[in-house]
Amino acid sequence: MDGRGAPVDFKEAIRYQKMAVECLRKKVSNIEDWDISVSDYKRYQESTRDEREEVLKSIGRFQTWLRAADTTCPEACFLVGKCYNMGILTSKNSQRARSYYLKGAKHGDAFCQANYGSMMRELEWYEIAAHGGSYAGAYNAANHYDGENSQKERYYRRLVKR
After folding, report:
1. Which residues, other chains included, contact 63 with Cβ-Cβ below 8 Å and sequence gap of 6+?
2. Higher confidence at residue 9 or residue 73?
3. What's the CA gap between 38 and 20, in Å, rounded?
4. Most CB atoms closer than 10 Å: which of 45, 78, 124, 156?
5. 3 state DSSP class of 66
């Protein structure tokens, strides 16, 4: 198989297959909302820290992300949580931000895990996020153990340096 005009990416193919199965399981009528949300999530993650707020504003698809998040698209949960947390494209609402971060965290999104852990100050979520590849999760977990010179502190410091 040649990817039909795009490079072959089995990891991405499996991800889309899982997304489609989840949509069918939940009888999601609009898979396009998920697809758009995943694309916007990637764009957000690829931007620099200074650009991120403007990226969310320029994309401006809060209602699309909200529909996808309500059908448990983890990437959309992150975007909606971020908007509620920062008051971008909607009014600021920490309680709603936490609930969307938790929803995405439970479905494996490392950035939701790190943000939820940060809002709740829960070490468990920092560690889960760190193992999921989140720099912020590793950083927060390392800081939790700061000064102990323990094996866990050294482990999370190594993750931060990667």
Report:
1. none
2. 73
3. 13
4. 78
5. helix
Burial per residue of 56-91, b for 16 or more beta-carbon CB atoms within 10 angstroms, e otherwise: beebebbebbbbbbbbbbbbbbbbbbbbbbeebbee
3-state DSSP percent of the chain in helix, strand and coil, to 5: 70, 0, 30
Show the tokens assigned to 82: 């971020």
pLDDT for 27: 47
Q: How far is residue 35's CA from residue 31's CA, in Å, rounded to a whole number? A: 6
Q: What pLDDT shows up at residue 96? A: 96
pLDDT at residue 98 above 90? yes
List the alpha helices (DSSP H) in 47-148: 52-59, 62-70, 74-86, 94-106, 110-120, 123-131, 135-144
Instruction: Provide the pLDDT for residue 19.
Output: 62
- Residues 100 and 81: their CA atoms lie apart, in Å, by 5
Distance CA(64)–CA(57), nearest Å, equals 14
Report the amino acid identity of residue 12.
E
User: Residue 87: pLDDT above 80?
Assistant: yes
